[in-house]
Amino acid sequence: MSPLRRTSIAVGALYLVTHVTSVVATVLYAPLLQGDSGTGVRSLAQTGALLEAILAISVVGTAVGLYPVVKSWGPAFALGHVGLRALEGAVILTGVASVLALGALPEGSGGGPIAAALVALHDATFWLGPNLVLTVSTALLAILLLRSRLVPRWIPVLGLIGCASLLASAVAILYGVFPQVSPAGGAAAAPMFAWELSLAGYLLFVGMRARVAEPTPPTP
């Protein structure tokens, strides 16, 4: 197996891990964030926190794994992608800390001001990381994949469509047009979900295309 194929499998697997952990963690967190502070609920939230910690590591891993492959087609963009994914991971961990702190509050304090502040902090990190920061990092990676032709053109094009949709959604959420967790928010995030799932599937089952010659690095 070639190094490029191994990289494709590793990065594709990490993308799938980010999908699974993010969705399951959101489900496990929901009762605690909605004010239920029972023992069973706290235990579920702790499991969700562990999954989101794995999510943060996997997010950074996707960028680090791709960096050596895509840097020739735009070193600044490639480095920016790694930096932004690291920032996204840090924002995710901040949200994890807020949930753990919420779960550590005395039972029955679910409606107090401290609990409300921690829930608001979690919501803010959810907006910053999986919405704003992800949009910019995805745009950089999609441009690199378009330049390199390491994957079919339609995959990065789908990523750019997802960026536009998610950015518009982030602005709408910020100004209260619709809630973050809502049918409209889910519809806006669908193209980004499809991009990541398509990229993960292609990397896992097909693999990046080997380039015969190194390109002349473009000016970002």
Written description of the protein model:
It contains 6 helices and no strands. It has one domain. Helix 1 (3-33) packs antiparallel against helix 6, helix 2 (39-70) runs antiparallel to helix 3 (75-103) and helix 5 (154-174) packs antiparallel against helix 6 (183-205). It has 220 residues and is an all-alpha fold.
Number of domains: 1
Biggest sheet overview:
none
Structural class by SSE content:
mainly alpha
Question: What's the tally of helices?
Answer: 6
> Can you write the helix and strand succession as a string?
HHHHHH
Q: Name the helicity range.
A: over 70%
Percent strand: under 5%
Rg measurement, Å? 19 Å
Detail the topology: elements first, then pairings.
Elements: H1 3-33, H2 39-70, H3 75-103, H4 113-148, H5 154-174, H6 183-205
Structure, briefly:
With 220 residues, the protein is mainly α. The protein is built from six helices and no strands.
Keywords:
mainly alpha; 220 residues; 78% helix; 6 helices; elongated
